[in-house]
């Protein structure tokens, strides 16, 4: 019995020792396994682009679309104001054709010069600061324009407004960098609705306010949307892509996390990693071997898009104001000519029918948005750009055909549709083709070249004749 007890005790002791050895062997094996899992989580990384795509489209993007789209209302009102106010300032200061054209040219000159500067500042110090500063700047100088005591002061203050609008236009870059790639071809063309609303709003203000209170009060009332947007803009964060390019990783993560929470989504697992870029806002990137050809073609495309768009806007208003239309059913108010035997007739204000024609043409900017979306998704950016420019050139020539007032309105409607779609495509392609470190600068250079087209368009439309400007396109 004693022997059996000893054997049993020995057996239990051996089993205990063996079990302890097994535990000691398994424990080190388990710890590396846990550490390995932690290391795998830590080794996983994602970029801002991957985070934006993972978060997807949600409530934040609706807010972004509405607020940043509303900036297009401000930009459209400031640009379209030139077409509405031209007959009034011509009458008040007895301006020659070249003086009226110089007003638009000075606005685009301010836009061109500040476009490059604004793009550089946006890449170096942030998109949000430039866009917000553009709102404040354009609203302030636009308000001062309504108090201009002379023509010289008027063109100076309008050039300052153009400088502010150049900063506001950087909002397109800020908006694009937050939108998932698959939604850009849908959302960005839809933003044309806001531009149309801005154009229609300033035309309605002109129709209702100018005959009663004059053009100065029209400008004062047109500043209201800018003031409202200044307060709403606090809900829009700085670009996460900019923070990453500047090395502010924590700030980028916080912004992306807020967007994910608002959209009820989650960020990808792992760490946000992208190398900090030292050459932010370097113009040499645009002319490097990788982007030289793209930049040159884009600069020309922006020039053509701007010349076509503002040429159509200013030419149509000039044709209506001076009654230069070749129509077969002209009514009595369209028979008063600008050039008469005893000199120039400086005061030919817009009639109600003229405002209505401009309103209908504005609707053309959104009427073919579904076609624009289909072109972008089916044929891509470059092919869509080529097709739209060709069609716009054909319609430009058709406007010179003598027709009825209804026929002219239809052609003007189609023309505004095509040139607006052309602008949409070139905007989207430019925002996508350049890297983050040079995106705002690239957009700034492109908008500056477009303003060269905008500077030439007034002289072709208002110094020569509206039909001549349409033909040269």
Automatic annotation (TrEMBL):
The keyword Mitochondrion does not apply. GO terms for cellular component: membrane. One of its GO terms (molecular function) is transmembrane transporter activity. Keywords: Membrane, Transmembrane, Transmembrane helix, Transport. Signal peptide: none annotated. Residues 64-473 form the Major facilitator superfamily (MFS) profile domain. It is found in: Membrane. InterPro entries: MFS, MFS_dom, MFS_trans_sf. The keyword Transmembrane helix applies. It comes from the Eukaryota. It is a multi-pass membrane protein. PANTHER family: SVOP LIKE, SYNAPTIC VESICLE GLYCOPROTEIN 2. This is SVOP-like. It comes from Seriola lalandi dorsalis. The lineage of its organism: Eukaryota, Metazoa, Chordata, Craniata, Vertebrata.
